Amino acid sequence: MKFPDLLRTANREEASLLEQLDPRRLPRHIAIIMDGNGRWAERRHLPRVAGHRAGVKSAREVIETCARLKIQALTLYAFSLENWRRPKAEIDFLMRLLRDYLRKELPVIHRNNIRLLVIGRPEQLPAEVQRDVARAMQQTAENTGMKLAVALNYGGRAELVDAFKAILERYKKQVQGNGAGPGFRVDEETIAEHLYTAGLPDPDLLIRTSGEMRVSNFLLWQIAYAEIYVTETLWPDFTRAHLLEALIDFEKRERRYGGLSRREAEKSAAARGGRG
Q1: Which of 5, 83, 100, 178 is catalytic?
Q2: Reduced to 3 states, what is the DSSP secondary structure of residue 62?
Q3: How deeply is 235 buried, as exposed, middle or buried, from its count of CB atoms within 10 A (0-12, 13-18, 19+)?
Q4: Is 187 among the catalytic positions?
């Protein structure tokens, strides 16, 4: 089984990469830290906003490719809580760019059966942005294809704080209703149910562009066992071919989740058999 839809539109390089992919081993959930827009612009002696505008093309190509590969979920880190420290002019541009993106791309997203989600604290965004985001999520709410989660006004630590607050509120309500007591417990499943990403599988693959070796407060709980792929490519230069290269690298890795590799397990089993 290959990818006929993608192969029809692929150039020679992309077709060669697609031939190396095993559809059965693709990640269920890909998370991407889209970094390098500013540096991309600076290297071309352009204002930083030009890099953000150029990055939209990369986002469009990655979203389309993941949807056609039947990836279950894609999360893009668009605007962090820390990004409010940037110059006001740049922040204002990013908000306008987001609204323009939703206006232009939402029909395509909807037509491709993609469900749009926003994770973070969108209630702190400008009112007009909140309205556009709410409208976009409502319009795609019934779609059954890939879930596209856009992290807006997002921080991983803030997400955990909000989850713990929600769990505490749940406990208080149960106490008031005489429904909670010593039996009330909080485990990993409880926390996961109260995260912004509730209902999504944890990311199998975290991609970071621009070569930075950090996770930048992104999905701190969810990426506990994610494979991390870092590329020097700046986000506006990140193409379908770069995404396919990341997926090929992912498929070559053996995910052990703290256990033994297949070879180590076979060696251990053989040793036990020899002692018997």
Answers
A1: 83
A2: helix
A3: buried
A4: no
Of the candidate ranges 35-49, 166-180, 181-195, 235-249, the one whose mean pLDDT is the lowest: 166-180
Contacts of 31 (CB under 8 A, 6+ apart): 74, 75, 76, 77, 203, 205, 206, 207, 218, 219, 222, 223, 226
Structure tokens at 182: 């010593």
- Is 5 annotated in the active site? no
Q: Which domains occur in the chain, in start order?
A: 12-18+25-155+200-254 (3.40.1180.10)
Catalytic residue among 35, 132, 202, 204: 35
pLDDT, one tens digit per residue, over 1-35 is 578 777 777 799 999 999 999 999 999 999 999 99
Instruction: Tell me the range of 200-209, 248-257, 260-269 where mean pLDDT is highest.
Output: 200-209
Residues 40 and 1: their CA atoms lie apart, in Å, by 37
